[in-house]
Amino acid sequence: MEDFKLCYPIRLCSPPLHLQSMALCATTLRNPRNQKIRIQPLMGLVRINGTFVAICDSSPSSSLSHASDHATCGSPAWIGKGLTCVCFKRKGNCQRICISLTPLQEERLRRLKRRMKVYFDASKLDHQEALRALWSASFPGQELQSLISDQWKEMGWQGRDPSTDFRGAGFISLENLLFFAKTFSTSFQCLLKKQGGKGAVWEYPFAVAGVNITFMIMQMLDLDATKPRTFVRAVFLQMLSENEWAFDLLYCVAFVVMDKQWLERNATYMEFNDVLKSARLQLEKELLMDDVLRIEDMPSYSLLC
Q: Are 112 and 223 in contact (CB under 8 A)?
């Protein structure tokens, strides 16, 4: 007997405390075709507007090769043999997000993973050019004297050589900053030049904060996991299939969310990690909203200009 992976939406009258994953004892349920299904310990549990979506491994006691492809909330979600989907309600209709990836999602995820694994190498010409492009986008009309210069401190790097700050997130963090600078130049310049803020609340180094935001998003999306551990990852992969630049757009949203919370808290540099965690929670909340089907649908996307 072949195993199938199966997801069930379950509504709890008294939801437990915040749950990302939990273990439950194995149990036996019946699907709409009255076939017994042995539910193994829960792989994950995610809350969506009061509905907890359980991600489980299951082994049907009889063949499910003819199972219906038209799943609804409250029933197993099947799209062919061996594929896993989760079913949830958006805009009044039950919709599915597949954990098994489409060919397009697989290709774009591979591409994104390759980007994430590239280390910044100051000896590579394309990396040097990207760094110069970032300077030009950040300080148009101001000549960069050298790739190792005190000028970089104006942007919020820790020292004269910004390459040492890329170690945490790699070359993609430089790409993210450059994308932000070129795509949303007004917002980028406002944050870079600390416009509208008071000195006491503008104590985070802009560029280093940007590298940390890249790393935070990489952790939040959990893209290297062999099995999905959060529903946010599945939602993002759906968005990635719609827009190859979804990661970079999410980065821009994350930066303005972090900055907004920083100002609202009147935070200090010592509170940076707390603000970053709070920004992550806000991003996760928005990604799981009913009407958010693209990064551009996130409420905080409107902060960008």
A: yes
pLDDT per residue rounded down to tens, the chain (305 residues): 333 333 333 333 333 333 333 333 333 334 444 544 443 444 444 444 444 444 444 334 433 333 333 333 333 332 232 334 555 444 455 455 555 778 998 999 999 999 999 999 999 999 999 999 999 999 999 999 999 999 999 999 999 999 999 887 999 999 999 999 999 999 999 999 885 555 444 578 999 999 999 999 999 999 887 766 778 998 999 899 999 999 999 999 999 999 999 999 988 888 999 999 999 999 999 999 989 999 999 999 999 99
Residue at token pair 């929670």: 281
What H or E segment, with its residue span, contains residue 36? strand 36-39
The answer for residues whose C-beta is within 8 angstroms of residue 62's C-beta and 6 or more apart is 35, 36
CA atoms within 13 A on the CB side of 134: 28
3 state SS of 8: strand
- State the alpha helices, DSSP H only, in the chain: 103-116, 125-138, 171-183, 185-192, 206-221, 231-242, 246-265, 272-287
pTM of the model: 0.72
